[in-house]
């Protein structure tokens, strides 16, 4: 459909890689950006530090770095006293600190897993003791309350290990079958069986002997401490979703569900390019509304008395309410109120099923806290359960007519067990709340008066003096590290680097390991004292000399702008403009980021680094580029996030209309020569724009787009649109395939055929619909070996050659 463009590109070889640490290399001659350079293996930019963490003694930092041209990663160590960076040899790895583990309360011992085995390290002596060396994989070790034992997981089961003797025990034995020690009541015994027991004493005697033997066996089992604990015989047909052993080892919370749920009816995906040459198929996910949701039951087991009780959740506020009842009322109104169902007397509403997330025992095992969720994700309850009685106390109830934000479900006990902290969007923005069980009081930790910013990644200081967290206080796109001094403040900003910053506290609590980036600088490692006003010091510079030269010469730094919008709040965006003056109006391209709930107009290094560089190439060719954080994007609070409820593609499109109008008014853009492109959610939006507002954009490219939300997954889609059977109007209002008749402008669709996120059939179904609608000027490009995120440079290059050709033909 499009003319060949191979001759229009100046191809640049990308052969100068970054070094193992320094990234120094010979400078290349300055020349314009090319698609081949942009879409090459990103090693040419640099191999940035990954999975950085503290050494156990807080004296060093370790991180991984990808090998040049390979997927393998090497481990490096930074000595904080000398700032020496050196590779960790394979033979040394067994003596190096690990990223995870559990610390004793005095901070002198750490238990951790390495390569599937367990170790304990004494920081005062430096001695490390290996506890297991098995082919089984042991994980998640932690100290029990008295710290004489550790608990860990093996093959899905919880185990305890005595540190002094090495004795290993299994605290529970859950069996989902009938209890052989209990006499069965045979309600179906026929007349002859009942007659035998009535007429013959020997039959009755045998039954008595068997019962006595069972009782004696159980008595011996219970009285002998050297034996495994008595089994727990639970309902047949159920299974354990997860189990949580209390730190004191006395109780266990078992979360159960019905056995055998398979996740619902699943789709399949063909694999066309295989080693055997035969087409293979892979099983994929279920569609929205077809997922097999299993309600969960909570059993509190007393391991000493061998008694258990089910936690009663029926009293949770709103649990028996149907948040989608308005849909039935709307349907009844449309039917005139004379339908059969309308005449029926309403019955008692059934409580909605419950699932859990983040169950946490208090440090002494006296109580536990748990987030509970309704399956529609419109209600979240934080509850506290007394271990001794099973009494449930509601700590906080969050209800959202749209959906509960999945990022803001953090929770934990303070180290001394005096309070429970959690995050909530109750004010419209995620903030930290503190619940004190003794006083039964819950309060928001004061930060600023309005607090129109989001808090996340909350961690308590090792000494319990403060809560550290990440927040975008000054600007939605600038994330810094802040802290709140417990119990009553103050709120303090700890870092002041600008851009994007995340942090990990050192084990001794004195320093912060920072991962920091700016718009023109990929993430690097920094270190700073964990106090406000301290100076942050850079530890790594792993970009290549070649990339740094390109930044200085040809890569365009985005301008961060605020665009007036019809809904009142400004749109934050990245704007890319040519430096040279133009004799006339310029063409423009609007980029739409993916995921929906993602932030890209932030002041750090973009995860869309290829698109970022492509925008510099477009600027080089005379285009203006706008990249908007439309409504539904992350970083702007609850109302911004949920604006798309039951109408995906409508508020976002209004925002792009406002952005294009602003470009025309403020930046000399020709309204008739604006293109649009994006991938995943961005591809969905490109389709909605071309189908619903055919005069807004002159052409568009939809990459791996969702074309019909009824074919996407359940977890994501049901939050925003409910389910197709319950709320078909929301799906029809939000699915591009329903509006394909509106296509008038040129359209390019690109899709990986191994996409296990948005299946390729999304684009194939749309293609068939466009064929039947007899639409012209559209093209579908399928990439046989690519998944949702492309991996091969050749695929990236082919895709973006097509996009660039589309813009050059229809916007120039």
Structure described in brief:
With 812 residues, the protein is an alpha+beta fold. It has 13 helices and 44 strands.
Keywords:
812 residues; alpha+beta; Rossmann fold; 8-stranded mixed beta sheet
Descriptive overview:
With 812 residues, the protein is α+β, with helices and mostly antiparallel strands. Among the domains are: 177-183 and 194-233, no CATH class; 555-811, Alpha/Beta hydrolase fold, catalytic domain (Rossmann fold, 3-Layer(aba) Sandwich). The protein is 18% helix and 31% strand. The chain is built from 13 helices and 44 strands. The strands form 11 sheets. An 8-stranded mixed β-sheet has the order 37-38-40-39-41-42-43-44, sandwiched between helices. Helix 2 packs across helix 3. The longest helix has 23 residues, at 201-223.
